[in-house]
Design goal:
By secondary structure, this protein is mainly beta. The chain contains three helices and 17 strands. It has an eight-stranded mixed beta sheet, sandwiched between helices. Helix 2 runs parallel beside helix 3.
């Protein structure tokens, strides 16, 4: 079962590697208009003529998504949950493009794609576990099989400029730490990968965001040089579902610690 309340997993009677597993969203998303962000995790919006608060499951700046007057789609929260926010922020519309703002989803999206056999780079692994601790980090996925063990850390990308996906949109010490842990896994004889999941369809290339976090750029280059695989995927997004819809290239500037 998926761990997130605003996502339901649909499974038919087909085999595990069939295309029948897809993330299904709440059937009654609610339209709203963004007013302002009260803090990192709460937004104020107008919905059905009233001001409401929605949980923002994303600590990024999201300046390209959250601006006054922008159209949002919200997931209603069970009234018995005891939460102060009545909704979760699910989708944002930007220039006619639906973007998923929920940074929790990439783990589940990767799991679905791997289980469906959509990602050939991980096809040699047979089992999957979520949120596995390795050294001093908790990593998103661990795959095991005859090929050995592969640790994967997923990163949510929402910032796209002229077809280029940029990560991060704010400095991320945690992200740099995860890259170091993945490098340590490779040094221990395992496979490791970082997966940038762009939660929108209008992306052609992914690259680290040197403007916001040059240290992350350097850490990514170091990790790639250490043997960590770097992947990026775009998503197909509709008001009823979201899924990984293919890979896109990653461009890593040569900012590694050993570069001259």
């Amino acid at each position: 079962m998926l761990a997130y309340a605003n996502v339901r997993r649909y499974t038919d009677a087909n085999p595990r590697r069939d295309k029948g597993h897809r993330l299904k969203l709440h059937p009654e998303l609610v339209e709203a208009t963004f007013i302002r962000r009260l803090n990192r995790f709460v937004a104020l919006l107008t919905c059905r003529g009233e001001e409401v608060m929605a949980h923002v499951a994303n600590s990024g700046q999201l300046g390209e998504l959250l601006f006054p007057g922008n159209r949002m789609l919200l997931t209603p929260v069970d009234s018995g949950s005891g939460r102060k926010t009545a909704f979760d922020l699910t989708f944002v519309e930007v220039d006619g493009v639906l973007v998923s703002a929920d940074a929790r989803l990439p783990n589940a999206l990767l799991q679905e794609a791997i289980e469906n056999g959509d990602l050939p780079e991980f096809a040699s692994y047979e089992t999957l576990k979520r949120e596995v601790r390795f050294h001093d980090s908790r990593l998103d996925l661990m795959l095991t099989g005859a090929a050995g063990t592969c640790f994967i850390e997923a990163k949510s990308v929402t910032l796209v400029e002229e077809g280029v996906g940029l990560f991060p949109d704010a400095p991320t010490e945690r992200g740099r730490k995860h890259l170091g842990t993945l490098s340590a896994a490779v040094a221990c004889g395992h496979e490791a990968a970082v997966a940038f999941v762009v939660q929108r369809p209008d992306v052609k290339l992914v690259t680290p965001n040197q403007r916001t976090d040059p240290e992350f750029c350097r850490a990514l280059a170091d990790a790639a040089n250490a043997g960590v695989k770097v992947h990026a995927y775009r998503c197909a997004v509709s008001e009823t579902s979201i899924r990984i819809d293919g890979s896109v290239p990653v461009q890593i500037p040569d900012l590694s610690s050993g570069a001259v």
